[in-house]
Amino acid sequence: MRKINEIFYSLQGEGFHAGTPAIFIRFSGCNLKCNFCDTQHESGELMSDKDILQTIDGYPANMVILTGGEPSLWIDDLFIKQLHQAGKIVCIETNGTRSIPASIDWVTCSPKQDAPVLLNRMDEVKVVYTGQDVSPYLELPAQHHYLQPCSCKNTKEVVDYILAHPKWKLSLQTHKLIHIQ
């Protein structure tokens, strides 16, 4: 059984896959308590893998995004294998503080200040920028490095930082800007 906050179908709003139709599986709970977290992920219901797979089968996309909270609290190799057997491309959005199955297709690491990143494989780094020193995150082993305004509130500050530090790219929460889930 896995504790699920919600399952929904929308467009990915952030990072490399922004604009891509995807099925979101939002897991409940997190091992960190970030003061800027904009997701209500504490509640949820226990669902079997069969029920999760049956729910996502009703959506036409082949991309599944495991998110939360922190999805690494609830996933394992068997779950990822079942998603792959269902023909899904499996992406995860994780804070990087816990290990994840190696068979995940795309890893987005969103590191948090003062929390050690344990992952040694990731495809993109996406940092919510609140004015902190983000230079250590450029050393993480990812091909893409994104800075994201905190709930679209400090966009000018983020743009100015990226213009001065061009190894970063801008990630906007486009789902919030166009008012979709």
UniProtKB/TrEMBL annotation:
Substrate binds at L11, Q12, G13, R26, T67. Its cofactor is Mg(2+); S-adenosyl-L-methionine; [4Fe-4S] cluster. One of its GO terms (biological process) is tRNA queuosine(34) biosynthetic process. Gene3D superfamilies: Aldolase class I. Pathway: Purine metabolism; 7-cyano-7-deazaguanine biosynthesis. Mg(2+) binds at T39. Its EC number is 4.3.99.3. It holds the Pfam family Radical_SAM. Keywords: 4Fe-4S, Iron, Iron-sulfur, Lyase, Magnesium, Metal-binding, Queuosine biosynthesis, S-adenosyl-L-methionine. [4Fe-4S] cluster binds at C30, C34, C37. It catalyses: 6-carboxy-5,6,7,8-tetrahydropterin + H(+) = 7-carboxy-7-carbaguanine + NH4(+). Binds 1 S-adenosyl-L-methionine per subunit. SUPFAM superfamilies: Radical SAM enzymes (SSF102114). One of its GO terms (molecular function) is magnesium ion binding. Residues 17-181 form the Radical SAM core domain. Transmembrane segments: none annotated. PANTHER family: 7-CARBOXY-7-DEAZAGUANINE SYNTHASE. Catalyzes the complex heterocyclic radical-mediated conversion of 6-carboxy-5,6,7,8-tetrahydropterin (CPH4) to 7-carboxy-7-deazaguanine (CDG), a step common to the biosynthetic pathways of all 7-deazapurine-containing compounds. Homodimer. Belongs to the radical SAM superfamily. 7-carboxy-7-deazaguanine synthase family. This is 7-carboxy-7-deazaguanine synthase. It comes from Parabacteroides chinchillae. The gene is queE.
